[in-house]
Input
Amino acid sequence: MTSVWLRALGLLLLIGSCVFAPLWIIYGLPWALAGAIGSLLLVLGWHLFQLARLIRWLHGPFDAPLPEGSGVWEIAFAGLHRRVRIRSGQQQVLSDTLKRFTRAAQALPDGIIVFNRHRHIDWINKTAENHFQMSVATDQGQTLTNFIRQPDFVNYLDAERYDQPLIYRSGRVEGQSLLLQVIPYGEDQTLLLSRDISHLERLETIRRDFIANVSHELKTPLTVVSGFAEMLGDSTQTYSENEVKQYLALICEQSVRMQRLIEDLLTLSALETGGMVQSDERVELEPVFRSLRTEAEALSVGRHEFSLTIEAPALLTGCANELRSAFGNLTSNAVRYTPAGGRIDLIWRVRGGQGEFVVADTGIGIAPQHIPRLTERFYRIDRSRSRETGGTGLGLAIVKHVLTRHQAVLDIESDPGKGSRFIARFPASRLVPVSTPVER
Ligand code: ADP
Output
């Protein structure tokens, strides 16, 4: 500031010594005063010019460069320069922070909608756009309840009791369930968070169905067992030896059925809790196939014709017990669902580098709409037939889990009324090359 006054004083001294004094000495006082006034007007004109440049800059575009000044204006412009630099630095920091927050909010797996007290939408992230089929470009400023119209949601907003979230099933996307939570913040702003819980709901349904199925499966044999046990224990009744034998046989049969179901449940649970089969146990399949054929013949008691064809070396890496259980389920199903006089072929072959175990039967076959659901737990086409033949409804679920753990897949082909082919396909990486000596 001092330098401004010093400069002004210097200018006055300059005018005084260079204009006023010489003119006064040479032409007298009037000319000296006229010269001084003229010089001051020149100086004033120059300052007005600088002021005009400053005003033009102030009213110009935001990014226009600040003009350079000279004299006292150099000091003023330098000060402005410094302020502009600091302000634009602060703005840059603010805009970088805002961008970072926006990017973080966009990356969230949860949907976010910001709306105001009039329920007008201020901002939506990408996830919310997907959840509610909205677009930030077209729907910003619109009323939220025009998009989420369900009375449940509108009542939830009206009640303003946001301590509990709301489960929302839109119906726009099939099977979609969202968990909505409203969080008011600031003076006028409210956040609506949405989380997709469809898969949790599906798991919950599966869990409920599973418990209902297991209870149902156990209830029938338990009723039979307890009923006959009660009858036999009733001292007021007498039964012939034959009747007692018959009742005990029924109790035994139902106990075996419950035992089988529990064994299958335990197998399934063990398979589900394990990850991939890491074991590089070398499994010789030929003896497994031979014993499966023998067991299937025993189950068939002469009602079917069997063949076993081993077209390629049958060696896999994996878990012998699991593979035996999966192949055993496929073979016993073929026997159970093929009427007397039918034929069952067991084939091991290598196709396109993949090992394939095929169980082909000439049985009752499967209508196409059932095929995708056969590996679900307790899915049966004909419940009574499955039970009559000792089925638990878990066989193919076990097969699927075992194969998945071996990176293998199950293909099912069927002609209703003519027969079915169940093909377990193993990747080349699980086949043991023939040249590798077998360890015994
Ligand atoms: P289950 O104990 O009832 O046999 P599975 O899981 O082994 O249970 O099989 C599921 C259903 O798939 C069976 O109830 C049956 O309807 C059908 N199924 C399985 N194998 C065959 C087959 N070889 N031929 C016809 N239907 C079959």
Observations:
- The chain has four domains: 2-91, 108-196, 203-273, 282-430.
- The pocket of adenosine-5'-diphosphate is lined by residues 329, 333-334, 337, 361, 363-364, 366, 374, 379-382, 386, 391-397, 420 (CB under 6 Å).
- The two ends are 100 Å apart (CA to CA).
- The longest strand covers residues 343-351.
